[in-house]
Fold:
Amino acid sequence: MMTYIIDNKCIMCGACEEQCPSGAISIGKDQYTIDKNLCISCGACAAVCPVDAPKDEDE
Structure:
């Protein structure tokens, strides 16, 4: 199953964390991060991100 990652375009707005139904997103040192073991590949994070930081890990 594909999971999402958050690339360096992250502006730390928190929109993705609020929308993640599985609690896979947490705040990191310089940007939010996604726990691949919790990500359910729903795309909710990508849908709300204003800078398109969440990406399919294979992109």
